[in-house]
Structure formats: structure tokens, C-alpha cells
Amino acid sequence: MMKPDSYKISFAVFPVLIFVILGCSNLGRFTQSGNTTSSNSTTSDKNKSDTSGAVSSICNNAYYPVGENTVRKYRVTYPKGTLTEREYTETFSDFTGDTFVVNTDFDKVKAHINWKCTPDGLLATQYNNTVNMTKTGGSASVETKDFSGVTLPPEDRWQSGEKWQAEYHVTESLNGLDGKQAGGGDGIVTQNGEIVGSESVTVPAGTFDTMKAVLKTEVDITVTMKGMSIPMKVPIETTAYFAKGTGMVKSVTKMGSGIGDATSELLSIGK
Prior knowledge:
Elements: H1 4-22, H2 27-31, E1 35-37, H3 43-47, E2 71-77, E3 86-96, E4 99-105, E5 110-118, E6 121-124, E7 130-133, E8 138-149, E9 163-175, E10 181-203, E11 206-225, E12 228-243, E13 247-254, E14 261-270
Antiparallel strand pairs: 1-5, 2-3, 2-14, 3-4, 4-5, 5-6, 7-8, 8-9, 9-10, 10-11, 11-12, 12-13, 13-14
């Protein structure tokens, strides 16, 4: 049985890895951004309150198309004996000028990710995961203090050798199993991307000519609990395939030595 202090340390890292566990390979998971909750409200319920306006032309990126009626549906499969197969959808809302929101829906767990369009590319402006452990009363949240860089390059720079980076300064707040604050954390999340070539990829939604990108995230955070400072470094690597006019059609995320890979594939895209 895991000791109480060991449990707390593991719990501290949980919000950092929530999308690795649930989405593993979708774009939203790579950005690790937005507010993740176990709410039972639906994405469509959220959209009913949206106030959308004209969107800037710099938000148009054929390798990551967004729109109020765009819906991409994915299936995630995990190594045998780890997690069960699941599906999720990706929709978009709150288009106002050079900003929009990406909504990722895993049924009971949802993420709403704020993005900003810039001349240098698309940028997720948050690394902000909130997790409520309903059976235990524990919770943890990550707040973004500062951000910089690019999450995805502009359309005209999607070619082999293109590199980009985004960086987030984050703080973490932890509540224990009794609901009381148990500790906190502070650190940097660095995300690096590189286009490494082109490849034809077949998924349930069809066969696509894609650009292949390697996406690397490193979470470097120090968690403080009961007067102890615990430095943690968590590397995450995903290989993702983006088709022009469609978006991400497949991704493969390494789940750790000896565990295997988690694979996300596009099931359908609608408008």
C-alpha cells in the first residue's frame, strides 16, 4: 500500500499529467492548457452562452482549422493492461478578434483551452489544469503566471526543419484528502516542436498526406509539502501527424519505459 506522503507526492503530479492519462495524444493534451474538470455539463451547454465575433485572418491555419461548427472526433487506444479505449471530441467557440477557445470533451472530463492568434503562429495562453477527486475530496489546480512563444507555427512555415517553442511559468495549489490545503508548487513548463518530414497516414477517417511533427514537453516544477521541497521533472513526447485542411489525424505518445505507446486517431470531422 502507498504511504500517505507518497500518495500526496503522486497526487501533486496528477494535474500535470491529466491529459496524458485521458487524451494522451490530442493537440489539447500537448498544450496541456485550459481548465480541466470532472463536470457533467456538456460542450453544447457551454456554447449556448458564447458570444462570438469576427475572427482575425491570422487565426486561419490549414494545419489546425478552427470554426464554430467544426467538430473533430478521435479514438484513443492504450497499451494492453493500462487504460481502456475511449473517444473524445474537439470543438471551437468564443471567436473574438484574435482569440478563440478549444473545447475537448471526454464525456465526464472536459477541457476549455484559451488560444491566441499571432503573426508568429497559434498560442495556447494557459497551462491551467484543475482536477477534482470526487471520491476522496482532494483537488489540485495549476495557474499560469506568464507565457510566451508559439504552440503551432503559421501555415506558410509547415515544412521539414521548422522548429518552435512555448514556455509557461506555473504555480500549483494542492488540497489534501480532507479538503484542506496540503501544499503547492512552482515551476516552468517548456514545449518544443519540430516538423521532421511528411508521411501518408491511414486512420478510420481516411488516408491523408501529412506533415510529421515531434512534440516534446518538459514539466519542471518544485512541489512544497509539510516543509519539504520536492523537485520534479516530467518529460512527455508525442509524434503527431497534421493534414492540410483537416488538422491532426493521428498522434502517438510515449507513456514511459516499458509501458508502451498511446495512439490517438481521427474518426471523423464535421462542420
